[in-house]
Design goal:
283 residues, alpha+beta, five-stranded mixed β-sheet, 36% strand, 15% helix
């Protein structure tokens, strides 16, 4: 099947709507509604769809970098390719991915704290870690508070406090599995087009044993959404979710979402992908 790479596509993206009266937004991760909202996670906020023009930046890959736009793509085939066993992923894919992140960023230390495999399965509930579907709402995985909490949660206290004195980031390394991600590609928002205070609002993530926090992204017509058409398993996208440098000199985060591209040919293999989440430290 030949898939033509378009200059842009127009798609409906889902955005966060803040709860009224300043109530803190929350969402339960492994609890889903029944009845009319069957399959939807329990939450106290609304969402809205907006039609958005998404630019395909194939041929302009060098125009995006982690510090300039908050994301970038690299051509770097993985040695590990099966992605069928969590223990093997941690033993084989984590080390090679840590070296790749160090090479691209210049970081001195990389600590992975989890990974998620997503397989689009229409009609299947996304209600367990082994049944994750592509995320269909604009978001950022971490806030400043949850990023700092991640360091303290995943590293010994003495290490954590020292590392927090230096620059650190949270970066997702996203890669398709087995075939190109033409179905439900990844949309990424140029940080320079985001109003961080107005567009990104905290959402509590309620797990059975703990609480996290992400940013829900409100719609802003000034946002510039991009995508790389037909990302292959030999490529990887770096998505910056947090940067401790927040003086305006670098992108701090990248709003992103999976989306249904109306130009996707019928019969295209359903999207399968893996994302690693990394604490990235600098001397």
């Amino acid at each position: 099947m030949v898939s033509v790479s378009p200059a842009l596509t127009t798609a409906r993206l889902t955005f966060f709507v803040q709860p009224p009266d300043g109530v803190r937004a929350f969402q339960h991760i492994n609890a889903v509604n029944s009845g009319a909202s069957a399959g939807d996670r329990v939450r106290n906020f609304e969402r809205e769809e907006k039609e958005v023009v998404i630019e395909n930046i194939r041929g302009q890959e060098a125009s995006t970098t982690l510090d300039k736009t908050g994301f970038q793509i690299v051509n770097h085939p993985a040695k590990h390719t099966s992605f069928s066993n969590d223990a093997e992923i941690e033993r084989e894919y984590y080390p090679e991915s840590a070296e790749l992140i160090k090479k691209i960023t210049g970081a001195s230390r990389v600590v992975f704290f989890d990974h998620t495999i997503r397989r689009r399965r229409p009609g299947q509930l996304d209600d367990a870690p082994d049944r994750r579907q592509p995320v269909s709402q604009a978001h950022v995985d971490q806030t400043t508070a949850s990023s700092i909490a991640r360091v303290r949660r995943h590293l010994p206290p003495a290490d954590a406090e020292e590392l927090l004195r230096h620059r650190f980031q949270i970066i997702n390394l996203w890669r398709p599995i087995s075939h190109a991600a033409i179905d439900w590609p990844l949309a990424l928002c140029d940080y320079n087009s985001v109003d961080p205070k107005a567009d990104a609002l905290p959402v509590a993530l309620i797990y059975p044993d703990r609480e996290g926090e992400t940013f829900g992204i409100k719609y802003n017509p000034n946002q510039k959404w991009k995508y790389f058409h037909g990302v292959t398993p030999e490529e990887a996208i770096f998505i910056k979710c947090f940067d401790s440098i927040q003086d305006g000199s670098v992108a701090v985060f990248t709003p992103h979402t999976g989306f249904s591209d109306p130009s996707t040919p019928e019969g295209t293999p359903l999207r399968e992908s893996i994302e690693l989440r990394a604490l990235v430290f600098y001397d």
